[in-house]
Amino acid sequence: MSPPAPDLKTGVVGAGLMGAEIALVFALAGLDVLLHDRDAAALEKALARLAALLDRGVSRGLYTEGQRAMALDRIRPAPDLAGFGDRDLVTEAVFEALEVKSEVLAALDKACPPACVIASNTSTLPISTLSAALSPERRPRFLGTHYFSPVSRMQLVEVVPAFETSPETVAWTTALLEGVGKKPIAVKDVPGFAVNRMLHAMLIEAVKLVEEGVATPEDLDTACRLGLGHPIGPFALMDNVTSGLCLQVQEILQESYGERFRPPALLKQRVAAGYSGGRGKPGWLEKA
Questions:
Q1: Catalytic hit among 121, 146, 152, 200
Q2: Domain range enclosing 207
Q3: 0.85 exceeded by pTM
Q4: Do 46 and 151 touch, CB atoms closer than 8 A?
Q5: Which of 120, 129, 128, 108 lies closest to 158, judged by CA?
Q6: 158 an active-site residue?
Q7: Tens digit of pLDDT for each residue in 178-204?
Q8: Residue 1: inside a domain, yes or no?
Q9: Is 240 a catalytic residue?
Q10: What CATH number does the domain containing 19 carry?
Q11: What is the widest separation between alpha-carbon atoms in the chain?
């Protein structure tokens, strides 16, 4: 697939771990990117985090100095959505809550030009439900693009059309994602889509094995790496993305699919006690 047109303009709303790295992917492909967050401090921290990530990438030979400079030059902070009036694609990557995402999508519908494609990076919420926040005219140009963390290294993107998404929007977005180095797959619009349903079934069972005293988190991580060929074990993964986020996703899945996705009591207890993982915070493993 040929690279996207260099004059294509993109935007990302939400400067958290996911949103910032989505912006980085487009910038490394040579595209112009606006990055917005309602919290100015979060936006500043995101840009500093991306600079540090690129510095590490240069030291490891993943990027050249020229690529680093180009990427940082192409990501521009946007204090508000007024600058999104010339964008071709805008990705929403804010907090995983229906009311929060709906508010942002409604604002983008007004700020973006009629031809702009709006995509949501939700990991669990149905795309057709989110599309209700948009005008009927926008809905054919709205879909889900679910990236995986860390976005700068994980190639997979689930492309999820809503009820009214046009085939042209799906084809255009899929080609664009391929052009920036991603591997998109088509997934039906159901809660949790495909990967999270498989993943959280495994995470729930892994925590139950610890609850039952069958094995330790460390040994279960070793079993998944060496026995199943996974690059990272379930407990290291939960520490990276935080158990709090995993609990939130499982509660959404339980609401949609019933008891098979009920979060284990031990997971709830650890999150409530502050053992959620994340940068510099205690998690399942000693190194967290």
A1: 146
A2: 196-272
A3: yes
A4: no
A5: 120
A6: yes
A7: 999 999 999 999 999 999 999 999 999
A8: no
A9: no
A10: 3.40.50.720
A11: 57
